[in-house]
């Protein structure tokens, strides 16, 4: 991307100068990733240092970093993290396994769709967490309970996005495939499945985001371990820096999930194919 | 030999809201010989796309018959490849992937597929672009890829619905010459739909002129130009102007009964 200055350029016919150092710095990947957090952390630090709130309510970055070191050393944080991620993995895995085929089935079969649509809307309206009381009765304080809630959270937005995606596949693409000799099944596999991907990728992102939040909520209620449990437990004993640490970890983890899995997947598919506009133009 | 025979074609649409019957095609009959280039010309909204969609098998007819290679048309099939105005290339497939699509669907073995893909990409001047995705190609290249995708499948007839209508005038001329060159070297059977008189005359062996909606065949005009054809030469030929004038006069006949002329260039 070339930089375009907002003001009209006065000088004419001059060779473009190399971009100034600060501009080149701003364009590096590390800066793009971490840069935006600098003012946030600075503000946080400032608020803590000015002691706007009493220390038992609000701690600054150094305390949280200390806590991070302590919990890493004791192995508590890695243990809880891996518990949370395992749950998320199960929930997302089963969520995709159920949501994608069901979504495509509902989208492709008009009768099934007419039958399922009211049910879909009804169950989507029941908040995931609202299931927890009954799920705990059924499955106890177990991985199954958490997984159930997660799957529930992910499946509905995913199904709706698949249906929307299938509807968005241009009719001409289906016609082109048919007049090149594709039967209905091949049209589904070769045109409708990839054609719906922009919307489906969005659905996976949304579903995962909801799932991540539901997981933390479920851990707070059901929890015997996990990041959500860690935060709730810390509050009980009045360890505010641990609560803050938990919040920071949740955000950082979602960011990592996006950067390591979701974004590369979208870059390799829908963005590569020019089916969606890229969020950031490349430098 | 006749590749495509349309007789007594009629089409009425039922308006979804008012429930009214709209006659789009009143009575259309003509044939396309094997290896012939026939254009269907008429003002916008006269039913050209409808005729093409019926031949392609995308839309059901209300009356008459459409026969391709001796078989009545029933649904879309690989004997009738379509080049769309909106190119309709698969965005998730490379140029190569788009060209071999039909061959894969029909179970052509891989080595033959590769060979044919290369051949047809070269034919349309896209050799070396096989790994590009459609969005990485220019509008003109996209349309040529659309042609390669259909021709590689060796259909009985290639159907083209205003494929150059949304392309800038300069490139359009070039594409028309490319298409003529491809036609002259391969002699596929082509059924071409357009509202551009010069385009129809330049490309075609015969031009079927339709009236405004509901459409009827006003006349079928033979184009007395030899091949190969090039724009600079064609424009200098009195026969080209005379044929275009004749077609324009036929279209102007519409003034009396409908006044759909505004769309005719
Ligand atoms: N699916 C449809 N339902 C109702 N009317 C239609 C439909 N498709 C086309 N028509 C009508 O039929 C007429 C011919 O349309 P079309 O074949 O697209 O014309 P052209 O391609 O010559 O511009 C138009 O008046 C259009 O409104
Ligand atoms: Mg049309």
From TrEMBL, chain A:
Subcellular location: Cell membrane
Recorded family membership: Belongs to the binding-protein-dependent transport system permease family.
Keyword Phosphoprotein listed: no
Keyword terms, alphabetized: Cell membrane, Membrane, Transmembrane, Transmembrane helix, Transport
Pfam families: BPD_transp_1
Domain ABC transmembrane type-1: 81-266
Record SUPFAM superfamilies: MetI-like
PANTHER family: ABC TRANSPORTER PERMEASE PROTEIN MJ0413-RELATED (PTHR30151:SF0), ALKANE SULFONATE ABC TRANSPORTER-RELATED, MEMBRANE SUBUNIT (PTHR30151)
GO cellular component, one term: plasma membrane
Name of the featured protein: ABC transporter permease
Membrane topology: Multi-pass membrane protein
GO biological process, one term: transmembrane transport
InterPro entries, alphabetized: MetI-like (IPR000515), MetI-like_sf (IPR035906)
Membrane spanning stretches: 33-53, 88-107, 119-141, 147-166, 187-204, 210-232, 244-265
Organism (species): Streptomyces coryli
Gene3D superfamilies: MetI-like
UniProtKB/TrEMBL annotation, chain B:
InterPro entries (alphabetical): AAA+_ATPase, ABC_transporter-like_ATP-bd, ABC_transporter-like_CS, ABC_transporter_ATP-bind, P-loop_NTPase
PROSITE patterns hit by this protein: ABC_TRANSPORTER_1 (PS00211), ABC_TRANSPORTER_2 (PS50893)
Residues in ABC transporter domain copies: 4-237
Any one GO molecular function term: ATP binding
Pfam families associated with the record: ABC_tran (PF00005)
Highest rank taxon of the organism: Bacteria
Keywords assigned: ATP-binding, Nucleotide-binding, Transport
Name of the protein in its database record: ABC transporter ATP-binding protein
Originating organism: Streptomyces coryli
């Amino acid at each position: 991307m070339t930089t375009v200055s907002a003001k009209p350029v006065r000088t004419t016919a001059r060779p473009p100068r190399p971009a100034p150092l600060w501009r080149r710095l701003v364009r590096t990947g590390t800066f793009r990733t971490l840069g935006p957090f600098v003012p946030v952390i600075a503000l946080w630090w400032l608020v803590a240092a000015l002691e706007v709130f009493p220390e038992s309510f609000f701690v600054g970055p150094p305390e949280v970093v200390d806590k991070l070191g302590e919990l890493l050393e004791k192995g508590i944080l890695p243990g809880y993290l891996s518990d949370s991620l395992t749950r998320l993995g199960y929930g997302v895995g089963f969520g995709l396994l159920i949501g994608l085929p069901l979504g495509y089935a509902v989208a492709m079969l008009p009768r099934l769709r007419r039958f399922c649509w009211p049910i879909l809307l009804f169950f989507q309206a029941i908040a995931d967490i609202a299931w927890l009381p009954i799920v705990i009765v059924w499955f106890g304080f177990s991985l199954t309970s958490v997984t159930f809630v997660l799957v529930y959270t992910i499946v509905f937005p995913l199904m709706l996005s698949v249906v929307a995606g299938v509807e968005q596949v241009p009719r001409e693409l289906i016609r082109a495939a048919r007049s090149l000799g594709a039967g209905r099944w091949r049209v589904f596999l070769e045109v409708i499945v990839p054609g719906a991907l922009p919307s489906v990728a969005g659905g996976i992102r949304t579903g995962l985001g909801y799932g991540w939040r539901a997981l933390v909520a479920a851990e707070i209620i059901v929890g015997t371990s996990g990041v959500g449990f860690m935060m709730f437990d810390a509050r009980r004993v009045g360890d505010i820096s641990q609560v803050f640490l938990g919040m920071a970890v949740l955000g950082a983890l979602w960011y990592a999930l996006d950067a390591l899995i979701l974004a590369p997947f979208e870059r390799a598919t829908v963005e590569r194919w020019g089916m969606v506009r890229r969020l950031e133009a490349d430098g | 030999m006749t590749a495509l025979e349309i007789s007594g074609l009629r089409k009425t649409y039922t308006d979804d809201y008012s429930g009214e019957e709209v006659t789009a095609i009143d009575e259309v009959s003509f044939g396309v010989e094997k290896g012939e280039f026939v254009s269907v010309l008429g003002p916008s909204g006269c039913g050209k796309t409808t005729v093409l969609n019926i031949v392609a098998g995308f839309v059901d007819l209300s009356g008459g018959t459409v026969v391709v290679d001796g078989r009545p048309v029933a649904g879309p099939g690989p004997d009738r490849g379509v080049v769309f105005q909106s190119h309709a290339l698969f965005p998730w497939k490379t140029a190569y992937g788009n060209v071999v699509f039909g061959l894969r669907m029909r179970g052509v073995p891989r080595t033959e597929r590769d060979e044919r893909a290369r051949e047809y990409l070269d034919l349309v001047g896209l050799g070396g672009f096989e790994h590009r995705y459609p969005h990485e190609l220019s509008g003109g290249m996209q349309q040529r890829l659309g042609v390669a995708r259909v021709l590689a499948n060796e259909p009985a007839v290639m159907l083209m619905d205003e494929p150059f209508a949304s392309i800038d005038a300069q490139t359009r001329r070039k594409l028309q010459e490319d298409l003529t060159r491809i036609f002259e070297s391969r002699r596929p059977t082509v059924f071409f739909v357009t509202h551009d008189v010069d385009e129809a005359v330049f490309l075609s062996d015969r031009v079927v002129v339709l009236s405004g909606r509901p459409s009827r065949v006003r006349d079928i005009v033979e184009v007395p130009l030899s091949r190969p054809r090039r724009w600079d030469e064609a424009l200098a030929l009195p026969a080209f102007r005379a044929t275009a004038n004749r077609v324009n006069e036929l279209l102007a006949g519409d003034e009396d009964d409908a006044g759909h002329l505004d769309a005719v260039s």
